[in-house]
C-alpha cells in the first residue's frame, strides 16, 4: 500500500544550454511519489525521462541547467527542497535517502574495482562507525538480498553476467536502505527471463523494505504490470498521468493510446498492431501548439497553435465507484469536443 508523499516535483523545467542556443528538455513537470509506490515514467527515447530523474537528484551534467520549479523530499529530518540544498546536504542525502540505479550496469560499475570495494564505498562514506568486518558482512548480506553468492565479492564486473551486474547495481542502491530508489532503464539489454527474475526480486525487496521507486523505461507494457502510477512523457512534457490500470484500460491521451497499440496482447483475440506514424520532434524545432499534433489522428484545429495543460478530464466517476483520478494534456478532454471512442473508455469496458 502507498502512503504519504516522499518526493514532490512541482513545475520542474530543465534546459540544455543557456541563452539563444538553449534547448528546453523538460517543461513544467509535476509528480508526487508516495511511500511504497512504484511510479513509472514512460515514453520514446528523447522524451525527457532520464533528464527529469537526474534533475530531481541534482545529478545533471553540463550543459544541463535547472531553470525552474521545486523538488521537495520528505526525509527523516523533515522536508528538504533539493533544488535549494547545498553540496554538503546533497552529499548526505544521496545514496543514504535517495539512490539511483543507472543505465547500463557494465558502464556504471567501475571496471577496475572488485565488487566488494564498490559495495562498501557508500558504507564507508555514510556509515563511518562501521569497521571493515562489519562493512564486509553488510556487503555479503546485500548480495544475498539480490540472489548472488558471497564468492562473487572478489569478482570484477567483467567476470559477471549482465543480469548479475544489474543485481549488483540494485544491491548498491539498497545498501543504506534509502526511502527512494530511482531506476533508469534497469533491465535494458537483458533477456526476458533474467528481466523477470530481477523485477520479481525487486518487488519483493520493495515490499520488505518499504522504499518507493521511480522506474524509467520506454517499455510501457512492463510498467502496466509493475507500476502503481504511470506518467507518460512526450517532447519534454508529461502528457498523461494515471494509475496503471486506468491508463491501460482507458487511456485519455492519443500518444498513450498509440503506445498501448504498439505491443501485442497476450490474451484475447488477435488484433493488428498499429505503430505511431512519424518520429518524435527535435527539441530544437518543436512544432507550435501541442507537440504531438503532427502525429495525432485526432488532432483539432487548435492543437496546431495552443499548448494544452495537464488537467483532469471532464468525465464522471467510473463503474468501480471511484473518481476517475487522472490527468491528461489534450484539448479533446476540455469539454465541448467529441471524444473518439478509444479515448472515452471507462474502467472495465471492453476495448
Describe the structure.
With 351 residues, the protein is of the alpha/beta class. The chain has two domains: 227 residues, Rossmann fold; 109 residues, no CATH class. Helix content is 27%, strand content 22%. It is built from ten helices and eleven strands. A seven-stranded mixed sheet has the order 6-7-8-3-9-10-11, sandwiched between helices. Strands 2-1-4-5 form a four-stranded antiparallel sheet, covered by helices on one side. Helix 4 crosses helix 5. The chain is globular and about 70 Å long. The mean pLDDT is 89.
Q: What does the main sheet amount to?
A: 7 strands, mixed
Gyration radius, in Å: 21 Å
CATH topology of the largest domain: Rossmann fold
Q: Which strand order spans the largest sheet, edge to edge or round the barrel?
A: 6-7-8-3-9-10-11
Q: What's the total helix number? A: 10
Amino acid at each position: 500500500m502507498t502512503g504519504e508523499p516522499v518526493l514532490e516535483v512541482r513545475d520542474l523545467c530543465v534546459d540544455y544550454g543557456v541563452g539563444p542556443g538553449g534547448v528546453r528538455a523538460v517543461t513544467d513537470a509535476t509528480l508526487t511519489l508516495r511511500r511504497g509506490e512504484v511510479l513509472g515514467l514512460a515514453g520514446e527515447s528523447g522524451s525527457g525521462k532520464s533528464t527529469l530523474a537526474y534533475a530531481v537528484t541534482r545529478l545533471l551534467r553540463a550543459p544541463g541547467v535547472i531553470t525552474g520549479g521545486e523538488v521537495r523530499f520528505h526525509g527523516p529530518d523533515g522536508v528538504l527542497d533539493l533544488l535549494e540544498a547545498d553540496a554538503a546536504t546533497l552529499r548526505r542525502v544521496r545514496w543514504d535517502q535517495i539512490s539511483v540505479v543507472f543505465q547500463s550496469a557494465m558502464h556504471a560499475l567501475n571496471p577496475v574495482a572488485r565488487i566488494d570495494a564498490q559495495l562498501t564505498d557508500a558504507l564507508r562514506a555514510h556509515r563511518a562507525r562501521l569497521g571493515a568486518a562489519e562493512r564486509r558482512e553488510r556487503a555479503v548480506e546485500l548480495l544475498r538480498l539480490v540472489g548472488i553468492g558471497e564468492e562473487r565479492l572478489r569478482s570484477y564486473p567483467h567476470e559477471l553476467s549482465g543480469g548479475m551486474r544489474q543485481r549488483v547495481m540494485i544491491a548498491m542502491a539498497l545498501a543504506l536502505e534509502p526511502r527512494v530508489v530511482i531506476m533508469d532503464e534497469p533491465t535494458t539489454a537483458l533477456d526476458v527471463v533474467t528481466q523477470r527474475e530481477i523485477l520479481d526480486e525487486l518487488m519483493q525487496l520493495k515490499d520488505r523494505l518499504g522504499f518507493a521507486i521511480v522506474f524509467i523505461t520506454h517499455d510501457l507494457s512492463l510498467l502496466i504490470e509493475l507500476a502503481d502510477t504511470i506518467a507518460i512523457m512526450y517532447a519534454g512534457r508529461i502528457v498523461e498521468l494515471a494509475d496503471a490500470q486506468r491508463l491501460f484500460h482507458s487511456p485519455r491521451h492519443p500518444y498513450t493510446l498509440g503506445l498501448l497499440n504498439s505491443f501485442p496482447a497476450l490474451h484475447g483475440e488477435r488484433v493488428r498492431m498499429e505503430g505511431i506514424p512519424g518520429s518524435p520532434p527535435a527539441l530544437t524545432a518543436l512544432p507550435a501548439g501541442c507537440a504531438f499534433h503532427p502525429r495525432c489522428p485526432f488532432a483539432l484545429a487548435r492543437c496546431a497553435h495552443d499548448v494544452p495543460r495537464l488537467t483532469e478530464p471532464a468525465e464522471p466517476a467510473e463503474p468501480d465507484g471511484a473518481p476517475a483520478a487522472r490527468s491528461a494534456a489534450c484539448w479533446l478532454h476540455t469539454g465541448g469536443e467529441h471524444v473518439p471512442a478509444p479515448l472515452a473508455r471507462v474502467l472495465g469496458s471492453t476495448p
